[in-house]
Amino acid sequence: MVIKKKEDSKSTVMNISETRHVPFAVVEAYKAIRTNLTFLLSGSETKVFCITSPEAGEGKSTTSVNMAIAFSQLGDKVLLIDADMRKSSIHKKLKIENNAGLSNVLAGFNKYSEVINHISDTFDVITAGQVPPNPSELLGSARFKELVDTVGKEYSYVIIDTPPIDVVTDALVIAPHTAGLVLVVKDQVTPTDSISRAIDAAKFAGLNILGAIMNAANPKSGRGYGYRKYGYRKYGYRKYAYSRYGYGYGYGSAPTLQKTQDDANSQQQ
Q1: In this structure, what CATH number is given to the domain that contains residue 264?
Q2: Which terminal Cβ of the chain has fewer Cβ within 10 Å, N or C?
Q3: Exposure of 268 by Cβ count < 10 A (0-12 exposed, 13-18 middle, 19+ buried)?
């Protein structure tokens, strides 16, 4: 599954109750993603899946929120879990508190029922919680597997937002307990070698790659954006110079682009 999704320069988070203020192309793209994932997960024993990206800043968390909203609008009971405990952002996008969340549950301080945020009748969220010193160990613990098994039975769909796969190993630790992972990339920003590394890491770990979502697809670029059949094709990603910055709280670093295509587009307008 490959879906290209148009976005403007600012990440768009859909409204819980209605989507009339969201660009039509964005809404339709998420509906297409939802339909494809529904078919892909129909034969799976679990409806729990991860969303990750090769590097930081490619829109995976915004995609996670919007996918949870899209599924919940069908009347399905959906749980979104922020497992990016080093650099959490789900609570900011949904404007909710993050006093206690996933890390508190995995450390044994809270029951998961105590940290659930009820966004709507069909949409619940578990935020990342306080920043722990050992995120990977917590995610690889028996408590996490027990949590995934429990919520997988109580919700129609469980979406787990994980850190970038080329930065830390958390996504590789989480994904074996799920139906697989969805890889989010950004048009003309994510280098092809980063995508290759992420796919190779997932394959080496024996993980199921459900598909890929391309963010910020430019309909004027001639890359086939539209409502015809989507398929796999080779995209010519540009080469960019990199700067380094610390991802999270001292757990390594990841390359980030000095100038994205969105910045370039804004300068031309």
Answers
A1: 3.40.50.300
A2: C
A3: exposed
pLDDT tens, residue by residue, 176-235? 999 999 999 988 888 899 999 999 999 998 999 999 998 877 656 544 433 333 232 332
Average pLDDT of span 27-31: 87
Coil/strand/helix, residue 262: helix
Closest CA to 115 of 98, 135, 90, 138: 98
116-120 β-sheet, strand order: 2-4, 209-215, 181-186, 48-52, 157-161, 78-82, 123-126, 116-120
Whose tokens are 């809404």? That residue is 27
* Total domain count, the chain: 1
Beta-strand ranges (E) seen in the chain are 2-4, 48-52, 78-82, 116-120, 123-126, 157-161, 181-186, 209-215, 242-246, 253-257
Percentage of the chain modeled with pLDDT above 90: 58
Residue written as token pair 């080329």: 166
Between residues 51 and 214, which one has the greater pLDDT? 51
d(CA 210, CA 193) in angstroms, rounded, equals 20
User: Which tokens is 38 given?
Assistant: 């529904």
Show Cβ contacts of residue 103 under 8 Å, excluding neighbours closer than 6 positions. 85, 128, 129, 130, 131, 132, 135, 138
Entry pTM: 0.76
